[in-house]
Amino acid sequence: MNDIFDEKPEPAPVKTVPQHEIDAQILREKTARLRALRLAQEAANASMSGTTGKRGPAKKKSPVKAEEKSVSLSDWLTTQEKEGRRN
Asked: In this structure, are residues 53 and 43 in contact, taking their beta carbons and an 8 Å threshold?
């Protein structure tokens, strides 16, 4: 008989994936799952409290009062010398 028909086809080469690619994919899946859980929890909390879930405007820090202003460097150095500290 003919040997061409008796031969079995060669198996396709197995493509190996580096470990860092596997780890990255696992991390992406985990991040997506946790993000979905967080968003679901925020939506549930927002519906219970009646808020939209969005943050309000950022709070501004109060301006520095005149008494709390920083001392100039020359004044600070003078004070340090008067207190007996060395440079």
From this structure: yes
Torsion angle, CA of 68/69/71/72, rounded to 10 degrees? Answer: 180
Residues 6+ apart with CB under 8 A from 52: 46
The one-letter amino acid code at 57 reads P
Domain ranges of the chain: 16-52
Q: Which of 81, 65, 62 is nearest to 73 (CA)?
A: 81
Q: What's the gap between Cα 47 and its chain centre?
A: 26
One pLDDT digit (tens) per residue for the chain, 87 residues: 555 666 777 777 888 999 999 999 999 999 999 999 999 999 999 888 876 556 666 677 666 555 567 889 999 899 988 888 876
Residue listed under structure tokens 């549930």: 44
